[in-house]
Amino acid sequence: MGRLDEKKKKKRIALLDAAYDLFTSKGVAETSISDIVQRAEMAKGTFYLYFKDKNEIQMELIKRKAGELFSVVREKLVYDGSASLEDTVIRLVDIIIEELREDKSLLEFISKNLHWGVFHHVILEGGNEVSDSFYDWYTKLVQSSGRQFRNHELMIYMIVELVNATCYNVILYQEPVALAELKEELFHLIPVIINNQECTG
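Below the sequence we write its predicted structure tokens.
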């Protein structure tokens, strides 16, 4: 990468970092492009060299943060081939929950913005190098189970969305139950989702 390309990359990252700080502190609606460039210490015109509008930088951040989260999960989850698919996915979910518990700003940002379109692009279509590795890993995990599923992409989406939807209030407000109790319930539901997606006969 040349010096000019490296400089452009740094500016783009600075804009993304500034936007994330503001989105998670003020909220997306309350943050303007002027706020972002001021935080990044750049001219307003510079923003439009990298992003079309605030929505585009928001979508890029969602993809980036979701991709980073799944990259961490993949690194921490050691699969030795002896655990069942259910046990491995439960371990995956446990890591996601703990990562979100440690970073409540990330929890709020992802919970408010992770929808099917983003999930499909980042995790399933390979929106970046991070998600490519996660999707490859997940596909190999399913294949190594020796089982057939109607739609293994929908299966992981349902599990991630279940975690996303149920953990928000529990992690932030400890309502309606403690996190340990929620985990227990989630870990009972995950095998049900997997078994319901499995082809029979």
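Residues 3-25 form the longest helix (23 residues).
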